[in-house]
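Section: protein folds

Sequence with per-residue tokens
===
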Amino acid sequence: MRLTDANVTRIDLIRHGEPEGGRKFRGSTDHPLSVLGWSQMQAAVGEYNQWDAIVTSPLLRCCEFAHWLGDKHNIPVAVESDLAEMHLGDWEGLTMAEAKARFPAIDEYPDQVTAFWADPLHYPPQNGETFQRFDLRIQQVWTRILEAYKGQRVLIVAHLFTCNFIIRQVLQQPLEKAIFFDLPYAGLSRLRFEDTPTSELIQLEWVGRSDIPSAPLKS
């Protein structure tokens, strides 16, 4: 479905590729992309250049690629600090196994990590950002981006939680279900907004793709 004579804003989200150090609770820990991570990101976007602007998290695993892509295609890049990943407190830099061992049983759960995934609203990472506070941060930056880039085609380079919480804003999912999509490294998603003076249409066109559907390149 498309609205006639609508003003269309298209937002592509891409999660960063693999960072140096492999899988761990990274959150606000600032590691750059690994060699594989760069390959994942470059393969995902290919030669596609249909964006008017790129907006990126300030963390290295996002912003270094965003600036490289912007330079390659002469696309302006803006850094938005509030797109940074959720701060994971005392879990930062630990693997899943390390965090489970270091933060053992709480209430009926065998460890604090299991408790978080089962009930994130009540068991946030120790000394970390809560879902409620992170959701407010993402809501605010998301509103700013939509207002600043209305009618444009934008690529957001961000993180697993950040991308999921943006999608949550669009789908109006319950906060406790915000991490609904297990987006792969360099996974791409597309949101489309159409508005007229009397109506509005919001669509999640696709989620977690490994590439972008082919389209003519800008001249």
Observations:
- The chain is about 30% helix and 20% strand.
